[in-house]
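Bench notes, afternoon.
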Amino acid sequence: MSGTSTPPPTPDTLPEHWTLPAPDVVERPWRIPWLLAPPVSLLAMLTPKRLGPHLAASGWLAAWTAHLFGLVLVLGWGRDLNSGHLRDLLDPLHLLRSGLAGTALQLYQSLVSWTDVGIAAAVFVGLELGLLVISLALWAVYTVGEAPRILAGRCARLLLWSTPGWAVLPLLAPRLYNALPWDNLQRLQGSVSVLLLLIWIVWYLSVILRLGARYSGPRRGPRWEPFHPRCEECGYSLTGQRRDGRCPECGREVVRSLPDYRQPPRFADASWFGRLLIFPRTILAAIFVPDFGRACAVWKARDASEQFFHGVCILGGLAAALLVGLWNAGYRYSLMRLLLGGFSREPLGMYVVEPALVGLVIGLLLLAIGWGERSMHMLFHRGHGAKQTVIINYMTAWLLTAVVIGGASLLLADCIARAWGPWPWIEWQPLGRFHIAILIYLLGLAPGAGIGLLGMMHAWRQLRMIRYANG
């Protein structure tokens, strides 16, 4: 034995290595045989969280079988969207036969030359490449700290298993649409079609999120690797230091670098109803507590932080929808008609479909911003970026604040522009001729942009606090 070896730890000193708290792992996942993949993939659309770990543990042949089965149903049920009734749903065998037969007829009628075959092959390859890009985006959503290779396969297989969810839209939407009495509701047809599409998008997105909610893969990756205890302030190795001492480098108390020092917010420990009550307080804490990242656990209660993040996206979308509804109610004019030349002036389109569409876009935008930030950390930290996930989820409270205040200030600017108008045109040499009302709208966007910038700076500061986080 060498005389310079590290002495064995005592109850009063820190060990040489620590291990992170392990995530909940499904111990014995069922590997789905490829022959059972079609019916299991349909069942997974009803219970995605329960079946997700078993689908991820299955082989590639089963995943591709479910994927091709979903594409067959999409082609078959989407062949004739003008037919079908709700009573068809009572005969599953008839629906399955119609899907298979419709796909055969669609291919027979469409692939009449080698040029058509080439176009179909190019479309298929483009679709698969698009799914590959989406699976890469799911890394930040599904990761629990496993090795990147394991994570990549898990994301790709679960995305392939979700393909039958695409067939729900051509299966249900035309039948619900045909069940309505359009003789007296001709003006609502466009609005109802868009509303059904929005409902399907929200449902399918929820299926994607729940499929990867539980982990069933091997215990390999940064989450299970032992690491040296370090001072959370300067990164100095604390191996052999006394628990009641201080860091030799920066003087920080050793007890403040122990894993148990970091605890999840109260939001994580509350019940479902309690989280609704604590949600506003958690938003205020994430925004106004300057050292939020120093005490928040980064490896515990990740599911609670995901629910907080999803709640932020939902509330942001609802706030945007409410503002659009107020805009349409105040001016009796369609916002989509002004922006895109969209829906008619009928009430369903102005007060339900347009606010829902804008709310969904804003909610998806917030979701994309959060996922993008997490993906960037996953890329730069080579798998260790899962540590930043919890902090980023809570810091999205700034996005909700930016949407609410930015939307309200923009609505106020619109009221000012309309109440005190008409405004003149101004000649300015660098920009040319522009309307002064444009400047008012830009000033209305300034508060939201400013809050978003402050949020980015605050989030960057919190992420620096967890560089050497031990718990």
